[in-house]
Design a protein that fits this description.
Shape: elongated
InterPro entries: AraC_E-bd, DNA-bd_dom_put_sf, MerR-type_HTH_dom, MerR_fam, Reg_factor_effector_dom_sf
Largest sheet: 9 strands, antiparallel
Order of helices and strands: EHHEEHHHEEHEEEEHEEE
Protein name: MerR family transcriptional regulator
Domain HTH merR-type: 1-71
Number of strands: 12
GO molecular function: DNA binding; DNA-binding transcription factor activity
Keywords: DNA-binding
Number of helices: 7
CATH class of the largest domain: Alpha Beta
């Protein structure tokens, strides 16, 4: 038998940790003196302690470890716990690998574009549901300002302010004169729909690839194409039938009413 201080030196585990494992019923002393309260450990308990340390190194919690070293736990349940941990670690590896690819892309951009690489930061984030009023039409790209003018007139008549401007691009690749465009404004509270204006709640998206850029509502830009290329290069794919979104904020410094700072958003999933 070894005193706790001796067992600590042999195992290279602190006395404080051994006492904590005792409190958790993870590693009870082989014997505790009923009078002095001194803890004593046997040599065989080194095997149990090493199992605890090995499981801990693999990322298991102390509660999970306690279950795994319990002789009453079925072997299949232990296998299941290892499979779950394997999945968790693989997920972390995949995320870190994706970061590595983005860093490599960034280094390439710095080399070839200088300071301009800072203009093309892509961020992955969750987007919550959003209440909007929208006006959808298959029309020309150049009609977007007029769509928002009509939408804002409707909001004005309803006594509501014109908040952030949102585009929903449903099917806009056929031609500039035949685009399925939905113009929308954010709402703070619900109002009645009145065709062609529809009040709806845009669904939340768990994973959006987003990019900030400068744009004008009356001219094309390459932001969506740049974002699509990033998605493909970084191991993601666009979710089908989910329109890409673009949130626009007026660019006050230019004095141009059609100039905006915009965030294009594309719903994605792991490829």
């Amino acid at each position: 038998m070894f005193k706790i201080s001796e067992f600590s030196k042999i195992s290279q585990v602190s006395v404080k940790t051994l006492r904590y494992y005792d409190q958790l019923n993870l590693l009870k002393p082989a014997h505790t003196d009923p009078y002095s309260g001194y803890r004593y450990y046997s040599a065989d308990q080194l095997f149990q302690l090493h199992s605890i340390l090995a499981y801990k190194e693999l990322g298991f919690s102390l509660e999970q470890i306690r279950q795994m070293i319990d002789e009453q736990i079925p072997l299949e349940q232990i296998r299941g716990m290892f499979r779950i941990k394997q999945h968790e670690i693989q997920s972390i590896v995949n995320k870190e690998q994706a970061k590595l690819v983005r860093i490599q892309d960034r280094l390439h951009a710095i080399k070839n574009e200088g300071g301009q690489e800072m203009m093309h930061n892509v961020v992955l984030k969750e987007v919550e549901p959003q209440l909007v009023v929208s006006y959808r039409q298959r029309t020309s790209f150049r009609q977007i300002p007029e769509m928002f003018r009509q939408l804002d007139d409707y909001l004005g008549n309803a006594g509501r302010p014109a908040l952030s401007q949102i585009f929903l691009w449903h099917d806009c690749l056929e031609s500039d004169d035949n685009m399925d465009i939905e113009a929308a404004r954010l709402l703070t509270d619900k109002i009645a729909s009145q065709p062609p204006f529809v009040v709806q709640r845009l669904q939340g998206i768990p994973l959006m690839a987003t990019l900030i850029h400068h744009c004008r509502t009356t001219s094309r830009c390459t932001a969506s194409t740049d974002l699509e290329l990033w998605i493909e290069r970084n191991g993601y794919r666009m979710i089908e039938n989910e329109p890409r979104r673009e949130i626009c904020i007026p660019h006050e410094q230019t004095g141009d009413p059609e100039a905006y700072v915009a965030e294009v958003q594309i719903a994605v999933e792991r490829a």
